[in-house]
């Protein structure tokens, strides 16, 4: 077991977590709601789940030790943040895409219906970014 295994779980645990969504039942639910071909829907879902697996492998290689405070910008479906939150890290998912009528939105809504109350998420990124910008401008100081 490596130091990162203790912090972000191990690959088998992560794979089991992803497979709670990357399975035929979940895929069929998404296909039924999306009303597109099963092949096109599954091809897109393959990409989404591959991105989550890549993100996890990246963290395994580069994660510092100790409890983490994480802001996942461009969180996509948010699965990586949900997984890290379950391990006790302070995780917030930021996904600027607010589209709820496409495959991404449908898939995200199914996941967040189950997990939304477990993970802080900034769904309206434009609103939050404007607040941050306003705050920064209000607290600017002149540089000598």
Structural features, described:
The protein is mainly α. Helices cover 59% and strands 8% of the residues. It is built from seven helices and three strands. The chain has helices at 3-8, 11-18, 24-34, 38-62, 79-86, 103-115, 125-138; strands at residues 69-73, 90-94, 121-122. Strands 1-2-3 form a three-stranded parallel sheet, with helices on one face. The longest helix has 25 residues, at 38-62. The protein is globular and about 50 Å long. The termini are far apart. The model has no long low-confidence stretch (mean pLDDT 78).
How would you summarize the topology of this molecule?
Blueprint: H1 3-8, H2 11-18, H3 24-34, H4 38-62, E1 69-73, H5 79-86, E2 90-94, H6 103-115, E3 121-122, H7 125-138
Helix pairs in contact: 2-4, 3-4
Question: Radius of gyration over alpha carbons?
Answer: 17 Å
Strand order of the largest sheet: 1-2-3
Shape: globular
Number of strands: 3
| Distance between the ends | 51 Å
Question: In DSSP terms, counting alpha (H) and pi (I) runs of 4 or more, how many helices?
Answer: 7
Mean pLDDT, to the nearest integer, reads 78
Secondary structure category: mainly alpha
Q: Could you give a short account of the major beta sheet? A: 3 strands, parallel
| Residues in helix, % | 55-70%
> What's the multimeric state?
single chain
The proportion of strand residues reads 5-15%
Q: Which sequence of SSEs, written as H and E, runs from N to C?
A: HHHHEHEHEH
Low-confidence stretches: none
């Amino acid at each position: 077991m490596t130091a990162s295994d203790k912090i972000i779980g191990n690959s088998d645990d992560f794979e089991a977590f992803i497979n709670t969504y990357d399975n035929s039942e979940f895929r069929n639910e998404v296909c039924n709601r999306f009303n597109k071909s099963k092949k096109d829907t599954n091809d897109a879902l393959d990409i989404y789940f591959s991105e989550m697996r890549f993100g996890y492998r990246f963290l395994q290689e580069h994660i510092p030790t100790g409890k983490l405070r994480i802001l996942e910008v461009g969180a996509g479906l948010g699965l990586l943040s949900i997984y890290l939150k379950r391990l006790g890290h302070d995780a917030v998912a930021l996904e600027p895409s607010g589209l709820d009528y496409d495959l991404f939105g449908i898939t995200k809504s199914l996941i967040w219906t189950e997990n939304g109350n477990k993970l802080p998420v900034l769904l309206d990124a434009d609103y939050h970014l404007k607040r941050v910008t306003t705050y920064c401008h209000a607290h600017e100081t002149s540089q000598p």
